[in-house]
Amino acid sequence: MLPEVGITGLIVILIVALLVFGPKRLPEIGRSLGKGMREFKDSITGSDDKAELPVRSEDEPRPPSSPS
Predict the structure, then answer these.
(1) Which one, 11, 20, 40, 52, has least CB within 10 Å?
(2) What's the CA dihedral at 12, 17, 22, 27 to 10 degrees?
(3) What's this model's pTM, rounded to 2 decimal places?
(4) What's the rounded Cα separation, in Å, for the pair 37 and 41?
(5) Per residue in 2-23, pLDDT tens?
(6) Of 44, 65, 63, which is closest to residue 54 (Cα–Cα)?
(7) How does pLDDT run across 33-65, given as a tens digit for each residue?
(8) Is 28 inside a domain boundary?
């Protein structure tokens, strides 16, 4: 079984990560890790930040098409 990680354990992990990756890379790693976790959560829940296109009714005129 895995032991519980307390405050001291977290501090030790952060110090080791700081020594291994350095102060410049640590924020980049945290940002990419957070982005990956957010994308994973969104893919699991099915939520999407992109708004769907509004449904046009038949009465509305079509927008003019651009000449090719």
Answers:
(1) 52
(2) -110
(3) 0.48
(4) 6
(5) 678 899 998 998 899 999 999 8
(6) 63
(7) 999 999 999 998 876 555 555 566 666 666 677
(8) yes
Q: Cβ(27)–Cβ(35) under 8 Å?
A: no
**Share of the chain residues as helix, strand and coil, in percent rounded to the nearest 5:** 55, 0, 45
In a domain, 5, yes or no: no
pLDDT value of position 33: 92
Residue type, 32: S
User: How many distinct structural domains can be found in the chain?
Assistant: 1
The per-residue pLDDT of the chain, averaged, comes to 80
Distance (Å, whole) CA 13 – CA 31 = 17
Does any domain span residue 24?
Answer: yes
